[in-house]
Specification:
Number of strands: 7
Bound molecules: nicotinamide-adenine-dinucleotide
Radius of gyration: 18 Å
CATH architecture: 3-Layer(aba) Sandwich
Number of helices: 10
Low-confidence stretches: none
Number of domains: 1
Structural class: alpha/beta
CATH superfamily: NAD(P)-binding Rossmann-like Domain
Length: about 280
């Protein structure tokens, strides 16, 4: 199994790089000597972050993209290769949240959630991996799933389906690359709660919150509280780069997730319905 230890002068592409976990990954990559290609749908935040890195002497470009649009990802890859001539680390990290029951989630919400959280990752791999393979250098794909890619909860159908998809897709990608002896490794990042703005970005309006049924409302409040009390994104970035350095596939940042996975497997193998795990 390959790994990626020496980051110096290598090129990292990070989606959702203007904030939260993506920005922490970018800072950690820059600290290791990498050049940065940052992609985000929030153009204003992206421009500020790019200017900041450049001011610190980090070779950085920014590309405004919506990861759910394949043509945006093609433009991102073109920009990366035009600027730096290679890509070594692709972090498919952009993602959004939504708390709604399985039946209340609208077709448009399903499309948006899966478009960003699942297709964003699929598009990244489809566009970047062939070019990385053709470049012949050692590389790494880091897909941000979530503990919600391994464990289910109430009011999370669209989020869970997308993140379970990212875990399954990453496992398939790993098999496909290994069988070909490719010099590209894969990791899937599965954090539980991290202190970012994700619960703000996906936050429903006050009116929507009031209209939600009591179970959804309770879940929304618990998620916001859990995110606010989560681990700092810098810790996730540190753990991720350490795991990539060791060539590890699954990156779990919270011990609680291990317990949940064990419970889930026990439920399946004991023919029990899924245990409702506490949110925090
Ligand atoms: N915060 C948590 O508790 C947590 C836990 C597990 C997994 N995650 C996952 O981590 C990833 C990063 O989330 P975060 O917590 O840092 O959130 P965040 O909201 O702080 O940052 C996400 C970034 O992605 C950008 N973005 C959103 N939609 C986009 C799109 N369509 N195209 C391009 N960029 C887009 C946002 O503008 C933002 O800068 C997501 O995939 C999320 O699902 C977060």
């Amino acid at each position: 199994m390959s790994s990626m230890n020496d980051l110096r002068e290598k090129v990292a592409v990070i989606t959702g790089g203007a904030d939260g976990i993506g920005l922490a990954l970018a800072r950690r990559a820059a600290a290791g000597g990498m050049k940065l290609v940052l992609a985000d749908i929030n153009e204003e935040a992206l421009a500020l972050v790019v200017r900041d890195f450049q001011a610190q002497g980090v070779a950085t470009i920014g590309e405004p993209v919506d990861v759910s649009k394949f043509s945006d990802i093609t433009r991102l890859a073109d920009a990366a290769w035009n600027a730096f001539g290679a890509v070594h680390l692709l972090a498919n990290n952009a993602g959004i949240g939504l708390a709604k029951s399985a039946w209340e989630t609208t077709p448009a919400e399903w499309e948006r959630m899966l478009g960003v959280n699942l297709y964003g990752v699929i598009h990244g791999v489809r566009e970047f991996v062939p070019r990385m393979l053709a470049g012949g250098e050692q590389g790494w794909i880091l897909n941000t799933a979530s503990a919600a890619g391994l464990l289910t909860g109430p009011a999370l159908a669209a989020y869970n389906v997308g993140k379970f998809g990212v875990v399954a897709f990453s496992e398939c990608l790993h098999h496909d690359l290994r069988l070909r002896g490719a010099k590209i490794g894969v990791s899937v990042l599965c954090p539980a709660w991290v202190r970012t703005k994700i619960a703000d970005a996906g936050r429903s309006s006050a009116a929507e919150f009031a209209a939600a049924d009591p179970v959804t409302r309770q879940t929304m409040a618990a998620i916001q509280q859990a995110v606010a009390g989560g681990i700092p994104p810098e810790e996730v970035a540190e753990t991720s780069f350490a795991a990539i350095g060791r060539g590890e596939f699954y990156i779990l940042t919270h011990q609680r997730t291990h317990l949940g996975v064990r419970q889930r497997m026990d439920d399946i193998l004991s023919n029990r319905p899924p245990t409702l795990l506490p949110i925090i």
